[in-house]
Amino acid sequence: MVSPRSRRRSLAVIILLAWVVVLAWHVRREYFRPITVRLAEAAADLNPSASFYSVKLGDMTIGYASSRIDTVADGFVLEDDVRLRVMAMGSDVPATARTEVRLGNGLELRDFQFALRSDFGSFEVAGAMKGDTILDLDIAAGDGEQSMSMPTDGPIVLPQVMPVHFALGSEPVPGEVYVFEVFDPSVMERQQVTMELLGAETLIIPDSATLDETSARWVPARYDTVETWHVRQGFGGVELESWLDLDGLVVRATSPLGYTIERTAFEIAWNEYRALEAGGPATALDAADVIERTAISVGVELPGEGRLRGLTVRLRGVDLSGFDLDGERQRLVGDTLFVDGGPPPSTVSYSLPADAGEWGDALAATPLIQVDDGEIRRAAVAVVGGETDPRVAAERLANWVYENLDKRITFSVPSARQVLEAREGDCNEHTVLYVALARAAGLPARTAAGIVFVRDRFYYHAWPEVWLDGWVPIDPTLGQYPADASHLRFVVGGLARQVELVRLIGQLQLDLISAEEE
């Protein structure tokens, strides 16, 4: 039996990834469908510029970001750079994300490159438009590479370009909500986003810096007054607020997790981050541990450390609409959730491999779940062999992933092929590899995410579900087949859906009504 302490150390990635996506949206932001002629006319006056940002939690710097726009002969080049250091269960987790986008004279997308790098490895995506309706993608994760083409409904827009589209494409109207489609390479999916102008505001920000000899720190030397659009953006039920200058460049932004990104002088932003890299504010970073900060206390501790057979909780503080709370072993009655953690069925009505035509998405490959990859298929055969009983195959896969992956907090875009090589990760890495192996073996599988109860607190978590005449949760991170009733599913789907958990943070309250141990 895995101890609660070990379990807590395994529960890092779901909120980290949600936060990565939120920060990625912060650096350059959201969606306005381009009006080609107006954009081309307005873009003609868009001058090269560079902006620098401090990423903060409260008053503490935890990262650095920069954003540049350069003019070239046939258009523009946008570059974003984000560097972060966060604490998760006592581990220092550094990561960098870099995006380069080439645009035409009317700000239409030509091609882009995105890279996320951390101690875990790298994830890189290169994309190029083919006409107005096809986006060609080359994806590199670890030693694995794949190419694919994605149809679009017209010219596609990336998150990094959206603030400029918003500011230059039309005169924003206060109170009006704009809805758009965007491709986000950090989650490898198209997403729908809304943007609403709340009003115009004036912000005062540092324009230059000087070195204070007494403190040996860079401090503001001069301030600048910036006219901004105050906008609210929404995707997946998550709302963010940002302040954009009249060219669409971010001046300030806030996230539901309490993080902010603020434009400042380069010397201030860069040297605060360098001090962080040197290990200066370690005590403050410990206090900012993202896992403990986002845990939900219920004030009751279970008497033992065994599996939970049943759990009943009352959910308060958030709108539950849109979440996948009701179904299979979960039953939602009003605001009360009943979870049945009983054993898997004794018989199953089908044999492996399941019919791909019948199961569609539950057996399909995706950019991050490389079902057709040779190494993935060979690993699935090695684990499952010729077994045709879905129950036996599901348990074998759960045991293999649990035993063969080191439990380590990572900052990554989880790719099954890369996880198979690295043999380490936390809950999202365990989940994405399990789902890929299961699908390769012909076992319908999907990703679920929500929270898991450990002692007296709930932590954000992800796990797979497999079809055994009903969706049965399995937790290869904690070594549970099936997963017990401590798992409360809120969403089903990949990273784009998992970001929806952000709207629970700081809002969701739970009352533990009953817990039954096996």
Characterize the structure shown:
By secondary structure, the protein is α+β, with helices and mostly antiparallel strands. It has 2 domains: 13-290, no CATH class; 295-301 and 358-517, C8orf32 fold. It has 13 helices and 25 strands. It has helices at residues 4-9, 13-27, 36-43, 162-169, 266-277, 282-287, 290-294, 356-359, 374-384, 390-404, 416-422, 427-440, 495-498; strands at residues 49-57, 60-72, 75-88, 91-103, 109-118, 121-130, 134-141, 144-151, 177-184, 189-212, 217-235, 238-245, 250-254, 259-264, 296-297, 308-316, 330-333, 336-340, 406-407, 424-425, 445-454, 457-467, 471-473, 487-492, 509-517. The strands form 4 sheets. A 14-stranded antiparallel β-sheet has the order 8-7-6-5-4-3-2-1-14-13-12-11-10-9, sandwiched between helices. The protein starts with a helix and ends with a strand.
Specify the biggest β-sheet. 14 strands, antiparallel
Number of domains: 2
Please indicate the percent range of residues in DSSP E strands (runs of 2 or more): 35-45%
Q: Rg to the nearest angstrom?
A: 24 Å
Q: Strand order, biggest sheet?
A: 8-7-6-5-4-3-2-1-14-13-12-11-10-9
Shape: globular
Q: What's the tally of helices?
A: 13
Return the structural class: alpha+beta
Task: Briefly characterize the structure.
This protein has 518 residues and is an alpha+beta fold. 22% of the residues lie in helices and 42% in strands.
